[in-house]
């Protein structure tokens, strides 16, 4: 059984970038999984620092309107990994999931950590590279030409244990 993980599609992230293409691909994935009766699980990152755009209880911490209506199952997390101190593994086990598809935001943090944690737990993992995004850029890391999404995708692809595809290459289950 396959499941779709939709990571941190929250106001505090989406409103700080140009993510229309990513949001459209994420929505297509959500609709496909729901149409097939497969689990779609949303993650919300919550921070306890008031200055954070994802401060718990703030508008920024809420799921973005483009996906909010689809969110039947939402897991709250406080670290980049969607598995750490959450019930995600138990929920996936209850569904009989053996493969997860990763979409969402903060490619180099939450998507990457969740991808690695899923692999470590024995799941087959597919990262849909162009259905992820980040508010950071090369300047954030003092590497002017860095394409974060491509870099993360390349590293995971080279691992030879994680499938990394663009939306158009994806053979939907």
Provide a descriptive summary of the structure in words:
This protein is 33% helix and 21% strand. It has 173 residues and is an alpha/beta fold. It has one domain: Isochorismatase-like (Rossmann fold, 3-Layer(aba) Sandwich). A six-stranded parallel beta sheet has the order 3-2-1-4-5-6. Strand 4, helix 5 and strand 5 form a beta-alpha-beta unit. The longest helix has 16 residues. The model has no long low-confidence stretch (mean pLDDT 91).
Short description:
With 173 residues, the chain is α/β, with parallel strands linked by helices.
Notable features of this structure?
173 residues, alpha/beta
Task: Give average pLDDT, whole number.
Answer: 91
Query: Per the principal axes of the C-alpha atoms, what is the gross shape?
Result: globular
Q: In percent, how much strand structure appears in the residues?
A: 15-25%
Span between termini: 9 Å
| Main pleated sheet | 6 strands, parallel
**Strand count:** 6
Order of helices and strands: EHHEHEHEHEHE
CATH-defined fold name: Rossmann fold
The total count of helices amounts to 6
């Amino acid at each position: 059984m396959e499941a779709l993980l939709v990571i941190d599609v929250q106001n505090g992230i989406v409103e700080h970038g140009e993510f229309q293409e990513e949001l459209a691909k994420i929505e297509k994935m959500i609709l496909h999984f729901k149409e097939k009766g497969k689990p779609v699980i949303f993650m919300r990152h919550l921070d306890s620092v008031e200055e954070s755009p994802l401060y718990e209880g703030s508008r920024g911490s809420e799921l973005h309107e483009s996906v909010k209506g689809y969110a039947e199952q939402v897991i709250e997390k406080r670290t980049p990994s969607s598995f750490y101190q959450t019930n995600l593994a138990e929920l996936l086990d209850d569904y009989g999931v053996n493969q997860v598809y990763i979409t969402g935001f903060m490619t180099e943090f939450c998507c990457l950590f969740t991808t690695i944690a899923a692999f470590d737990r024995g799941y087959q993992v597919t990262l849909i590279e162009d259905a992820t995004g980040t508010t950071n850029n090369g300047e954030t890391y003092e590497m002017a030409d860095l394409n974060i999404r491509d870099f993360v995708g390349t590293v995971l692809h080279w691992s030879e244990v994680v499938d990394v595809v663009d939306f158009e290459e994806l053979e939907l289950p």
